[in-house]
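Thread: quick sanity check before group meeting

JM: Hey all, I'm pulling together slides for Thursday and realized we never actually wrote out the predicted structure for the chain we discussed last week. Dropping the sequence here so it's in one place. If anyone has concerns about the input, flag it before I start.
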Amino acid sequence: VLVKEALLENWKAKLGSLIVAIIFFYYVQYTRNVTRVVHVKVDIPAVPEHLVLNSRIPSFVKVEFFGPQEVMDFNPANFKIILINPGPGPGENRYRLDMLPRPPEGIEARFDEGMTVTLDRLAERTLPLVGDFQLNSGSDVRIGAVTMQPQTIRVSGPASVLDVMDRVSLNPLRITPGTPDYATRVLVSALPEFVRLADDQQIGRAHL
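JM (edit): ok, ran it. Output follows.
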């Protein structure tokens, strides 16, 4: 009975003290936590062989690590963001984001849950090569016959992009008069994004 009376005596004050102690404990724990913002490298996902990327995927994703300061000393380069979609198809696809490996015990990683990636049907076309030849002279000398070898080149990429392409341009070539028979290699100029030369292509060669 004495023990019960002792417990019940000033029970409101004792309960208030307990609540304050609990709040103080969690406050101390929370104030020891910090947020560290880093950029984690994105692992470009593989796509089915009949498809090709037709939108940019960022190289890095912002990740906020939240947790105790004493375990925040880690190298963010050890992590990577992976994109998950079990059945992508042509058009816009929603990929789920995940991070590997898992963050250290007690640390929460916060980042966007998903990302939209556009895919297109992989196509290949053979297009004519078009050169841009210029003389390094102010005289009346003119460029004679120009022979291209090869005259066409194969490119591959998104079908929607290749459908509107009618040529592949070469880098401008400036020629100094005086050489009656002139031959040189000419590089292909920048192709549209996501378009590349098909495999086993020869470098363009001009004969003037």
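AS: nice. The longest helix spans residues 11-31. The longest strand covers residues 114-130.
JM: adding both to the slides.
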